[in-house]
Amino acid sequence: MPFGRNERIRFSKIYSLSCFRPSTSDEHAQIGQKGYSRVVYCNDPENPEALQLRYRSNYVSTTKYTAINFIPKSLFEQFRRVANIYFLVVACVSFSPLAPFRASSILFPLLVVIGATMAKEGVEDWRRRKQDIKANNRKVHVYRGNSFSQSKWKDLRVGDLVKVNKDEYFPSDLLLLSSSYPDGICYVETMNLDGETNLKLKHAFDFTSSLNNDTSFHQFKAMVKCEDPNEDLYSFVGSLSYNGQHHPLSLQQILLRDSKLRNTEYVYGVVIFTGHDTKVMQNATDPPSKRSKIERRMDKIIYILFTTLISISFIGSIFFGIRTSRDLNHEGYGRWYLEPTRTTALYDPKRPILAAFLHFLTGLMLYGYLIPISLYVSIEMVKVLQSIFINQDQDMYHEETNKPARARTSNLNEELGQVDTILSDKTGTLTCNSMEFVKCSIGGVAYGRGMTEVELALAKRKNSGSPGSHGGTSGSHGDDVMKLEKLIKGFNFRDERIMKGEWVNEDNSDIIQKFFRVLAICHTAIPEVKKETNELSYEAESPDEAAFVIAARELGFEFFQRTQTRISLHECVNGQKVDRSYELLNMIEFNSSRKRMSVIIRNTENQLLLLCKGADSVMFERLCKESQPFEEETKNHINKYAEAGLRTLVIAYRVVEEEEYKKWEEEFIKAKNSVSVERDDLIDAAAEKIERNLILLGATAVEDKLQKGVPECIQKLSNAGIKMWVLTGDKMETAINIGYASLEKLNDKEAITNAKRESIKKQLMEGRSQLDLAKSSSVLFALIIDGRSLTFALEKNLESLFLDVAIDCKSVICCRSSPKQKALVTKMVKEGTRKTTLAIGDGANDVGMLQEADIGVGISGAEGMQMKGRVNKEGEWTDVRRWKLPANQMITAFYATNIPDGANCNKLREVFMEYGEVVDIYIARKKDASGSNFAFIRFKVIGDIKALEGNSNL
């Protein structure tokens, strides 16, 4: 790597790393007892004790059926329908002489209905099976025979040593031993587990982090004792025995299956849990057998019809039996036209009870058409046709990703019109899962043109407000231009006052320089250069952080290199790029309690600077008490940004004296090296002493855009009276306060648990009282609850109260909820309201919720709205991007880069004329971020756009 990405970075030396504290929980004392009895022999497959252990294989199955149980289980599903049981009985009886018709007339329709439905179930389950086969046959490097070789996921065993490379998924739950970083850290994306997009930092022990190459494991042997398989994603209890010493394990050393390795070249780990013992599979639920409400209601109607049929046949058979018993009178027959000797047992005056019973069976068959089997045939055909219509619906076709809608089952079509409650994931489902830097306030001046979606919606609602409100102007043409120029992911900022180096002409240029310098330095991002294009990109822990670094780069402060103790920038000075290097001394990371992040650096002038960014709720109280000339203006801008639906952070700094820093550093290092339970508190206390007397620079505003059409969709759903719940794994910005913090320092677990439970109960009861008081008014309420609180709210004694409060709120948001909790909440709503629920999600962490709901809708997220490719085979123009302009759905825009100097509009026009009517072309000379020519082309598509997308030149 050009910038020494991995080799020279040891983040553990500059991080406070409060999250790496070894667990000192009392639960470690329970290892070896019930619930904590798992033993893993690491890299020791021939150990006799290891051979006696019978842990599950790493084979995973999510199908509903197997080859053995398909026929019996599928038949059971079919005969859950009452009508099918009736038709089966009638078909069996129709083979007897009693039948007034041929057996085939009733048996054939029954076989068609059951066979077609079973075939449909089989096809749908085979699709799941193919996904399982694909997952089980993924490859991973396993250490066997003193070397690493490729093996399939399904062949992994507990205790195996594996190597996982960058951007690969972990095949099972692993114990992290080492990574490509010398200090054994790695970055993990857990989107498939908890829905969070920010990266998690994992850390190996120091004594194993040195085992960081393929030849280091010849003599490695260790033993792990840990908890038994469970579904808790947020805790892990265990100990590692290595070289005669025991070391407590925590979640920081565990890599969970279906997480992805990011920003790290490779890691080594030991398999702890496999297959269905892994935490992600423990959170999964078996595929349910869903039946629509109409189908269940039809069963009830069948019961009524069946009762009527039995009644008619029974009454008729009674009268027939009575009349038959009177036929034999004085050795003669009352009905002379019936000859018993020439009839079957249907008529026998000597045995009237048997004749009546046989008459009853005949009546069931004669009057059987009261229950029409053709109705079921028609309904099944209609459902299949509806599924075909859904799959071919052009309004549900996503052109940019070439993905149509897919009805995975046709059993629930009729339920779509009866939905009462929608339970949706947030990240990637409602939002685009990407942050964009759109506005900022620097020195009391608001920068950033244009309006956010929320601002446009508010302006439309008020029927007032110009596009130039909140510090920006934009006409309709300007909007189109902005959309065309929106080419850099994470950056949607437009303001000619400070772009292209114009900030030097502003009155507050000194503050602007410091502001963007903080954004370029105060972060944990890592720069990467693509070898093919030599383009600089960043890998960051969160989309917000990446957006800040990209914004600083685009405005003249390009972060391009990081080492263990230095951060280097290309800074724009008088129109020229100047390299500046800053010594990185300390980093105090962001967490949910601190709500801020700080770095301490030494600049080229030998000044010590503390650079800080954080939430306004904690930053303003840490500002210098002396006059902050633009504090009120900044607060006003932050309020406006919040109203516009933007996420804000306050930017500040201070100059630190040498003596103060030396004294503080001693205390900070002492706190970092502490292994007591108060370690986090000691680090926070040390941070408090240095993060004070800050000088305000301004505030940032980033936007996580909603998916296209989400606001309009939610509005229409609300107008239709459909309730909306949001179940997300993301952290809660506005948390419910639970008053048990003081008890956390004690070791009385029962007291802590009871305090939590009582606090949740008290808050729910207070919520119920507020709702009752507000019934006569138009006040609307929202319920926000986190995953820890959900644990207690979903208990049997609180579940009904929680549901009672929730259903009376206008909206419900469940934050930091695990996959299991999502499924339990969905089940609670479905069973508690007895109304149709629909769940929407986009990740593996949403599967339980989708399966539990009456209807599950899984969506495929798209990274942006663009398509890249080559304009022609010779590569004259590359990096083509296409997206629809909302003003006219038939107008398509292309952005092409690396246009050669000799190219002209006519040459470009020739390329696209075959596919459409070119509206306009504009070529810019060396205006691209990479210094290359680029062009905008807009044209009206003629015919099918597929011809353009599938062309080999693109």
TrEMBL record:
Active-site residue list? 425 (4-aspartylphosphate intermediate)
Which compartments is it annotated to reside in? Membrane
The prosthetic group or cofactor this protein requires is:
Mg(2+)
A single GO BP term for this record reads: protein localization involved in auxin polar transport
Checking Gene3D superfamilies in the record gives: 3.30.70.330, Calcium-transporting ATPase, cytoplasmic domain N (3.40.1110.10), Calcium-transporting ATPase, cytoplasmic transduction domain A (2.70.150.10), HAD superfamily/HAD-like (3.40.50.1000)
Q: Region entry Disordered: which residue ranges? A: 460-479
Binding residues for ATP: 425-427, 545, 590, 613, 647, 728-730, 816, 822, 845-846
GO molecular function, a single term: ATPase-coupled intramembrane lipid transporter activity
Taxonomy, superkingdom: Eukaryota
Where, if anywhere, are coiled coils annotated?
none
Boundaries of every RRM domain copy: 892-954
Residues binding Mg(2+) are 425, 427, 842, 846
Q: Taking the first listed entry, what is the main subcellular location of this protein, grouped into a coarse class?
A: membrane
What's its membrane topology? Multi-pass membrane protein
Q: Which reaction does it catalyse?
A: ATP + H2O + phospholipidSide 1 = ADP + phosphate + phospholipidSide 2
Q: Which PANTHER family does the entry link to?
A: PHOSPHOLIPID-TRANSPORTING ATPASE 8-RELATED, PROBABLE PHOSPHOLIPID-TRANSPORTING ATPASE
Which family, according to UniProt? Belongs to the cation transport ATPase (P-type) (TC 3.A.3) family. Type IV subfamily.
The record describes the protein's role as: Involved in transport of phospholipids.
> Could you identify this protein by its name?
Phospholipid-transporting ATPase
